[in-house]
Design brief:
The protein has 480 residues and is mainly alpha-helical. It is built from 20 helices and no strands.
Amino acid sequence: MLFNSSTFLAFYAVLFPLYWFLHRNLRQRNALLLVASYFFYGSWDWRFLSLIILSTVVDYYCGKRIAMSSAARHRRAFLIVSLIVNLGILGFFKYFGFFVTSFIDLMSVLGIHANYYTLSIILPVGISFYTFQTLSYTIDIYYKKLEPTNSLLNFATFVAFFPQLVAGPIERAKKLLPQIESPTSFGPQQFREGVFLILWGLFKKTLIADRLSVYVDMVFASPGDFTGLQCVVAVLFFAIQIYCDFSGYSDIARGLAKTMGIELMVNFNTPYFSTSIREFWQRWHISLSTWFRDYLYIPLGGSRRGDFFTKRNILIIFLVSGLWHGAAYTFVVWGFLHGLGHIMDPHHHLREKGEFESSLWLNTLGLLWTLLFVNCAWVFFRAESLSDAMTIFDNIFKTFSQNTLIFSEVVIGMSNTEFILSLYVIAILFLSDYFFKDRGVEKVTNSMPVIFRWSYSWFLLLNLILLAPSDSGSFIYFQF
């Protein structure tokens, strides 16, 4: 069930009034929310409900036993149970085929021809997101940062909360669980903010991401058939597509939660205005970046053990981040490149030393370098294989100066009108992001005069009604 579908609209039209009708009774409200969340998740494949229920039950009881145990070895044992169950499920469904085929490839290099039959495993939607979310609960209890809940219903609702279940933000129990366990009241301003976030997210997803995906999918499906300049356009379009697709989902998730009186964290903060690689990761997929910082980077030692170990830890978390996104060498390379970029980031080092802090030209160079680096890395993220990625780079570097891009339906995969509309909605995106930068959507829209706020909202809505493509696809991050 997609946010951008009539099915979801019908689902939410039924849920919303029922939710507020029952909101005074916390148990009934959460029971309704849990059933609705399970129905939402089961609409993809009801069989995978067993996995999320298993993860929920295991972590609920492990959390209670960790809190009750005074012996360090008992506490550690229940934490290990939680880690094994959750990471074991994630590893089997997401990485089994990858590691088996990698082993076969290694044997072939050594001259040993192995022939193993692997299972055709379907990846449960959202498994990477809810696994990390529920793990944060037991880990925080283990480190005595959180007290366990006494209600399995409340914990299950926290794990399965449908707006952010399948593609984040990855919420921490210490922020979201208290809201699940507390009464909510209908706030007109919060509701208005939620509706605008939903509108803004749908604008990014349907008008930008879905429109650009036509050309992106065509080029990356067969990069050898396209010129260097056409590959450049595809890479730039993909950078905007994945941002609008993923941040659009996060905006809709936050907006839906707001309409139910629940606040979710900001997951994106205008990342393409970053002036360094480090700043990019402070603005892109913030819930995942901070998760890795708190639960992997700091436990590995962070920056406390000297420069060598700091750089080692950074590379580790980015390699793991690459694998988190997908079981393929392209994601590993993407993560490795960002790890190197994070370590060697020249603009960050200059700012750290206090040099040229307010220099406009240096910040501009930092912005251009960051965009160039991030877009080059996106090639590996999107390419079907490493050879396809190298084909794209080969096309760009060898033939760029000889190419002329012809804006025709045959060459670019969209009509001239569609291409112009793409530039139009992209311009709206970056102009809006410029004003939203560092202040946030809600703060900016709330500070607007009422007439401007309503005019902008109706402007987005009319664009959605008039310009949205007939077919709206699934969200990219559902595959992770």
